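for ur thesis appendix - ImmA/IrrE family metallo-endopeptidase. copy paste whatever u need, i formatted it the way the template wanted (i think)
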Amino acid sequence: MSKYERLLKQTPILLREDADLPEPIKGLYMETRAVQAILLSRSLRTSADKACILAEELGHYHTTAGDITDQSVIANRKQEKLARNWGYEKLVPLSELIGAYLAGCRNAFEIADYLEVTEAFLQESIVHYQEKYGQMVVLDRFTLYFDPLGVVEMFER
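the 3d part is after this line
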């Protein structure tokens, strides 16, 4: 089962995968008194594209309130960032970056393919983790470096 299919199973609201959205909009979370729904653009072709957009829209469902379409308002930009960060942590958790290393992935293309995300989404996730942790973070016996991206495994003596 693909990461996108797993996300679909975790989507608690109405989802329409073939919405006719104007470019450059790829996805939209909407909430009215009667319904909450996520619309995905029919222009999304790959499972990775769909997963990345769905994760962000689920982030809106879980973290934002009200109409935040006017991005000139600072509070709206903050809510947009919260939703994106939720998506990054959902699709590219630190443990899966370590998993990619252990699986032999050695460059951004291989890591993105392993994680079933786009390379752009992977890079944005790395930037998010840099903002959150700085240049590195230690998890168990692994140290993840964000720039350049790498994993160091510590062995016991």
